[in-house]
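In response to a reviewer's request, we include the raw inputs and outputs for one of the modeled complexes. The two entities were modeled together in a single run.
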Amino acid sequence: MASPRKNRRSVIALSGVAVLSLGLAACSSGSSTTATTSAAGGGADCAAYKAYGDLKGKTVTVYTSIVAPEDASHKESYKPFEQCTGATIKYEGSKEFEAQLPVRVKGGNAPDIAYIPQPGLLNTLVSTTGKVVKAPQLVSDNVDKYFGKDWKAYGTVGGTFYAAPLGANVKSFVWYSPKTFKAKGYTVPKTWDEMMTLTDKIVADDSKAKPWCVGFGSGDATGWPGTDWLEDVMLRTAGPEKYDAWVAHKIPFNDPSVVSALAKVGTIVKNPKYVGDVKAIATTTFQDAGLPIVTDGSCYMHRQASFYAANWPKGTKVAEDGDVWAFYLPATDPAAGKPVLGGGEFVAAFADRPEVAAFQAFLASPEWANAKAKATTGGGWVSANKELKIDNLTSPMDKLSAGILQDPKAVFRFDGSDLMPGAVGAGSFWKEMTNWVASDKSDADVLNAIEASWK
Amino acid sequence: MDTATKFTQMFFALGVFALVFVGTLLLASLFKGRTGEKIQAGAFVLPSLILLLGLLIPGLMTIWRSFENDSTGALGFSNYGDIFTRPENLLALRNTALWVILVPLLATAIGLLYAILIDRSPIEALAKALVFLPMAISMVGAGIIWKFVYEYRTAGRTQIGLLNAILDGMGKDPKNFLLDAPSNTIFLIIVMVWIQAGFAMTVLSAAIKAIPDDIIEAAKLDGVEGLKMFRFITLPSIRSALVVVLTTIGIGTLKVFDIVRTMTGGNFETSVIANEFYDAIFRYNRDGLGAAFAVLLFVLVVPIVVYNIVQMRKDA
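The model returned the following structure tokens for the whole complex.
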């Protein structure tokens, strides 16, 4: 051994490096947030919770993609359940949810419950891991009672019902400024033709601005707003049955009906007179794209989901008589009813303990839907639960969305890209819709490339 | 989890680590003499052995997995076939090649030039700090910074990106830097060069300072000056440092992921191997294809590492 002093110094240096890297590892786990809300016991009206039994001392872990600040109202909405049954809900939200959930499930570290926003991912988890637990009878009964058949079908894989629907959003909206419309004397279009007439009118009236705001950019998920455009139009021009066949790959991705739907999207999105610089759509984020409606007025209409309401600058009044509001993207054929494109989350369980089943049933119940509505004071949440009382929702936009979801004339269909296998729905479909605008790839080439990727 | 609990947890983890570390040392020091030294040596080698095992087994499993077809589970070369036939995968290979060739060369060239220029200048410390600073920024951070630099708004609107604001100020049309292929890959490469040039400069500057003065004086007496001095004295003297810098940056560049992910998400024909690897596993649920990409990356890194080791042996 060499001199003791030299040794000591190298030991310190070594441990310094090791400690540093350990410290970094500790920091990197900070992207997810964990919180526990403890049961207080008693107080609330517990009649509806009797069926769940006494769950004192039991814990249910929930893993979701919903992070702060939206997670607060979720945790708040579990309180009646926790107070009446004595169970504790451990909530963990992560932005890396979609990538991490399969890893956790395959690694034997699955949460009790996960809120899955893509039925396609649920399908993959069921078929590749086999660790998703079939929905208990109580949950199935609740879903039969409170949700439409189509919603139950999205949580079903291979004839077995697994996951009950949780939240929902409506994508068939066009955002506009009621103030500007009033000043210019425009009225909200009720049919597709009226909408195109209005588009041409804006082009004629305002040479400095464009009628449509479009942005496909969304970080590493760039392209999804483009898939929504195609799905929304496809649902209108080809009808819901054809749409279902297309999403399930029973007809090819490049079927003539899809070709004509994409061409119809192109009449708006790829028309420089309507959108300005078509290529720039690929690099404009969907968040930024609609902002000119309230800022500099350089575009008028932005087709985007109900959740865009959270995106407006602070102080923007989202209401029918406010700064911004949304109209329903009209049907191309008024006789075909009211097609609605939307999305939502589904509650999948990876454990079959009684407290987990009870919590699943609670989430599918009207008690939860209404508790969540009341807890979401800032707005930005709806559910397809038929017993959700629209008056319990706080924001006008949520009321509008819930009204559309509960409309008996509405023909609801789930966002197709969320139903397709990941390699298509979160891969080639996104990428090719991006290429469609970024490098002016032709309609046929885009659809053929997506079809080729679907094996 | 609030900040206080996070810090408590961190310090707790650090404390446990320190305890284990000191404990191992104490235990090792209990043994004296010849066998004692062996035990001490073993105590130090053990962690790296465990680590090696932890690397080796998953490594072998990855190689095995890369031959499994994702849909049928059959063993074969289907995943590799996918990599070398599908146009978007070939594009990722081409881009990775561009990165690996351009980044080490440019970063080293710029670093070397800079090191020579500022050598023995009065503001050397400051000038070095300025170029070294980007090294302290994470790749994701650099990606976000440069995304703003390249930011594009349609002509006529206020440009918030630095470069386009300059173009706008000069009365030129703004350019959508990150959109138009293949120049967009070059604009991404610039970010990596910006980060790595500082590293090259620091190492090379130290190597230049280590050249013995007597060699330089002897060369001067022989009438060697300027470029010739660089070509025949400086370059041969810092050769081993150059090799280390080139190979280190080369390996780092082969794995490039963060910059591409944050700036374009692999869109607009800018994807690279590591990005495709991530997408395959975490987005498309195609573990086999992802494993094949990982193996490919490994195969490409090996020659650089071997070359590096051979060079180091020669110098030693």
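As requested, we also summarize the result in words. Residues 162 and 285 of chain B are 39 Å apart (CA to CA). Chain B has a mean pLDDT of 89.
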